[in-house]
Amino acid sequence: MNKRFLALTTAALLSLSAVLTGCGGSKSDSKVLTMATNAQFPPYEYYEGDKIVGIDAEIAEAIADKLGMTLKIEDVEFDSVLTGVQSGKYDIGLAGITVTPERQQSMDFSDTYATGIQSIIVPEGSEITSVDDLMADGAAYKVGVQLSTTGDIYATDDFGADRVQEFQSGADAVAALTAGKIDCVIIDNQPAKSYVAANEGLTILDSAYTEEEYALCTAKGNDELLTKINGAIAELKEDGTIQSILDKYIVAD
Length: 253
Prior knowledge:
Elements: H1 3-24, H2 27-30, E1 32-37, E2 46-48, E3 51-53, H3 55-67, E4 70-75, H4 78-87, E5 92-93, H5 101-104, E6 107-109, E7 114-123, H6 131-135, E8 143-146, H7 150-159, E9 164-167, H8 170-178, E10 184-188, H9 189-198, E11 202-204, E12 210-214, E13 217-219, H10 223-238, H11 241-249
Parallel strand pairs: 1-4, 1-5, 8-9, 8-10
Antiparallel strand pairs: 2-3, 6-13, 7-10, 7-11, 7-12
């Protein structure tokens, strides 16, 4: 074969390969919306068999549908949800994430889609009967939290790092509580209800630790995606989709 012809043919094939790679190489081109979550947070995200379900999973699916995209959910540790979104590894994060001034410095947030309450789980008959007992002068109760959550942030600020024990998941914190290794667990109210229902001898204090709002997070400066997501959230609020998802998983007491 003529060497000149061979060289031209090879160059043409390489150029075609580059074009094809460029057409299918990015998430936006393939219309995949990658969501990071921590699927140990019922009813917001948890497993049913091999599938991740829950409030956040369904809301993300509805948003993806509005954007004409296919949702892909990645289950990682909660701290990795935040860092992965910040670095651009994941497009969005939904994991019962609360908007805080500190988090806003490193990532952007959508409009809120749900409100939450941080609750306190204690063993039945505990000396801890209110938030005031934890705040009292001289109190030395050990508080369990999930690493990098707002429960972790607020408890560390209120009680000091020496009184706060961090766990990779809420389930791990509750297991430590039932084993008597800590005195209480601070966690979002809806997961708290699930953990108490699944573990005999635990109860939730009547007084809330704090109230907060949940939002979806994206990488800092990803304005185009965030604008589209906020538009989808507005439509899903307007047509009642988000409320119906919340009502499906959260039954009024």
